[in-house]
Amino acid sequence: MPVLPVHVLVLGGTTEARRLAEHLAAHDPGVRVTTSLAGRVASPGALPGDVRVGGFGGADGLAAWVREHGVDALVDATHPFAAAMSRNAAEAAAQAHVPLLALRRPGWAAQDGDRWHSAGSLAEAAGLLPALGERVFLTTGRMGLSAFAGPGLDALWFLVRSVDAPEPPWPARMEVLLDRGPFGLEGEREIIRRHRIDVLVTKDSGGSATAPKLTAAREAGIPVVVVRRPPVPEGVPVARTSDEAVRWVRRLYAEGLEGPEGSEGSEGSGASG
Question: What's this model's pTM, rounded to 2 decimal places?
Fold first, then answer.
């Protein structure tokens, strides 16, 4: 039966992943934390504990890394739209026989006055745009811009905001705004006003860091296309906050890492999928 110290691998890249690593490093000296970053952001902030950057080579590669480095528990705290990584995490955890938790902040909820249009993908979101506006504030990041590069969208103008510079293919008429959240309400209001934005496109990332754009869009009375997030792989328990994830980790090592069944992070209890 595993005993302290234990090794937790956090698949990171989100604010919640950072908070989890910081909390465990500061308050749980018996826990070794390794945060894995995909490497898509050029200059990620410093993180406590060990950090690795780059892919694993799919589920098999991740499972091999988990076994080789003595990982006792895996936390998938990737972006809510990193569906391929989440599938790989679920498969790797099953192969390596380690417990897995998905850490997902809650999605956004429409409020009175919102003009939201739901889309199941970036391609579906792009198809909605010609009927909604001509000047698009595209806040879905630098990946996937090809969905907005179709000939049917050539008449539209796009303001693309991302942390790092995008690569083609991209929309025919486009301006790039390089910036990193959190974003304030006054700044989002100014972007909509100065660029004469008449439709906003966003992924349902949740959280507060980028939520002010939704308030600014509501105030301006412009429609918002919201891309729905993919589901967490079936059977994977979900925590909605880093505090819930900390309790999940603590419960695992307190119970000898027997697995998450019946813990607060499991479905049907304190956290939900």
Answer: 0.83
Q: Of the candidates 88, 80, 48, which has an alpha carbon nearest to the alpha carbon of residue 64? A: 88
Place of tokens 């910036």: 179
**What's the half-sphere exposure (Cβ side, CA atoms, 13 Å) at 141?**
13
What is the 3-state secondary structure of the chain? Answer: CCCCCEEEEEECCCHHHHHHHHHHHHHCCCEEEEEEECCCCCCCCCCCCEEEECCCCHHHHHHHHHHHCCCCEEEECCCCCCHHHHHHHHHHHHHHCCCEEEECCCCCCCCCCCCEEEECCHHHHHHHHHHCCCEEEECCCCCCHHHHCCHHHCCCEEEEEECCCCCCCCCCCEEEEECCCCCCHHHHHHHHHHCCCCEEEEECCCCCCCCHHHHHHHHHCCCEEEECCCCCCCCCCEECCHHHHHHHHHHHHHCCCCCCCCCCCCCCCCCCC
Q: What is the largest CA-CA distance in the chain?
A: 63
Rounded mean pLDDT, 157-173: 95
Contact 15, 78 (CB under 8 A): no
pLDDT tens digits for 17-68?
Answer: 999 999 999 998 889 999 999 876 555 567 888 999 999 999 999 999 999 9
Q: Which amino acid is at 231?
A: P
Whether residue 77 has pLDDT greater than 60: yes
